[in-house]
Amino acid sequence: MNGVQKNHSHPVPRIGGIALMVAACVTFPIAAIFGGNPRDESLLLLLCAAPAFGSGVIEDLTKRVSVRARLLSAMLAALLGAFLLNGVVGRVDLPLVDPILSVAPIAIGLTVLAVAGLTNAVNIIDGFNGLAAVVSILIFGSIGYVAHEVGDLLVMSTALTMIGAIGGFAIWNYPAASIFLGDGGAYFIGFTIAELLVLLVARHPTVCAWYAMVVAIYPLFETLFSIYRRRIVRGRPVGAPDGIHLHTLIFKRIVRKGSDPRQRQRRNARTSPYLWVLSMIGIVPASLFWHNPVVLAVTAAVFVVAYVWLYTAIVRFKTPRWLVGSRQAVVPAAVPEQTTHHK
């Protein structure tokens, strides 16, 4: 309750990830019997996700799993996906890079880094009620649509399963939170998104490799920008605690109004829609132009510009009036130099 990343007014259980895993474990076998989805592959996918999910759940229950241990667990999950599901990034649709990825160890190494990075990225944006849940539903919706277009039953059925599971969780997480995803839930969602994107690109040459980056560009760029802030701007280790993510600044400087528990809860809920809209700058074009590298590249550039502009404007207390949504002044909020934010 005392950490700078805590934005709720009463204790909330962090075991939402267990509910998601149970939903997947129940749904996949039933879908294999009645829906015809590939049972073996779907169960292998759950097996691959187990290290990342398990390390997160143990951290949620004990608070004794280090950041390094969780990162290594995510990398192990990615490695299992590479060998058990043949989920390997063999191309990025860049002429100078693709020939290098023909070397199997290099391709596997890139896959492990990319999957582990996106797994952690979803955990980073899991800061407010409904934020990571709804963004993930939007991403899975796009993945399911593209999988349908290319006829990939495993990816489509998994995406639909995750939409249903997260949707059930979201009812209890937004606008008021009775339960949190926790690290287990965030890692499970992040790994599943990453693995499905790798499988889409690896299995279907018509799916542009840039699609995988653009559809998940909000959590990915949030992570990269956080690394830039910590290492380049502040000269701190990449893994140093940090509590000034974009969603935190929006909470403190745009929807900041009132401090009693009920008002704080409403402010918490009002924060997430800003990021839902921001994430759709990447998700919508990626869903429509998943086969067009030019449009995807332009979309990525537009998102980066929009993100940096918004972040800079908020930090400098120059937030546009239309973003505030009322006549209330934007109240300056001190940003702590030292934090205990673990994400």
Describe this structure in words.
Pfam families: Glycos_transf_4. Keywords: Cell membrane, Magnesium, Membrane, Metal-binding, Transferase, Transmembrane, Transmembrane helix. It is a multi-pass membrane protein. This is Glycosyltransferase family 4 protein. It is a single chain. With 343 residues, this protein is mainly alpha-helical. The chain is built from 13 helices and no strands. α5 runs parallel beside α11, α10 packs across α12 and α11 packs antiparallel against α12. The longest helix is centred in the last third of the chain and has 28 residues. The protein is globular, with a radius of gyration of 20 Å. The C terminus is likely disordered.
* N-end to C-end Cα span: 16 Å
Share of helical residues: 55-70%
Mean pLDDT: 87
Number of domains: 1
Morphology:
globular
Radius of gyration: 20 Å
Largest sheet features = none
How would you spell out the order of helices and strands?
A: HHHHHHHHHHHHH
> How much strand?
under 5%
The poorly predicted ranges are: 326-342
Number of strands: 0
- Tally of helical segments: 13
Structural class: mainly alpha
Pfam families: Glycos_transf_4
GO molecular function, one term: phosphotransferase activity, for other substituted phosphate groups
InterPro entries: Glycosyl_transferase_4
Protein name: Glycosyltransferase family 4 protein
